[in-house]
Amino acid sequence: MSPELVDQAVLACCKPQFLKVARVIFDTAKVLKVPFPIEGIFVDDPEEFEEPTRTGVGLIVARIKALVKAKRLESAGDVDRWRYSEIRLTGK
């Protein structure tokens, strides 16, 4: 799965209003037909949850962070805490 494909899927799942990172990851995983580890949503401390490898959900999370860094997405909160942080499109 290429990073460009993941970026397109993430951006397609985002909206101009803030959405929880967990929701965007889940929606993106569904679009890309990637298995989603549901336990990742329920862990409050990111250090307790072993992040998946750079394939599947791990790649989606890495691309979300890259899109935030590139200012294509705006974040509120710590993106590593999926249930407590939000992202939205910046319009750029």
Nutshell version of this structure?
The protein has a single domain (3-89), classed as Arc Repressor Mutant, subunit A (Orthogonal Bundle), CATH 1.10.10.
| Structural class computed from helices and strand pairing | alpha+beta
End-to-end separation: 24 Å
Reading the helices and strands in chain order gives: HEHHHEE
Number of strands: 3
Q: Name the overall outline.
A: globular
Can you tell me the CATH class? Mainly Alpha
- In the CATH hierarchy, the third-tier topology is known as Arc Repressor Mutant, subunit A
Number of separate domains: 1
Give the biggest sheet: 3 strands, antiparallel
Mean pLDDT: 84
**Percentage beta strand:** 5-15%
The strand line-up of the biggest sheet is 1-3-2
How many helices? 4
Helix proportion range:
40-55%
CATH architecture: Orthogonal Bundle
In the predicted model, the low-confidence regions spanning at least 5 consecutive residues are: none
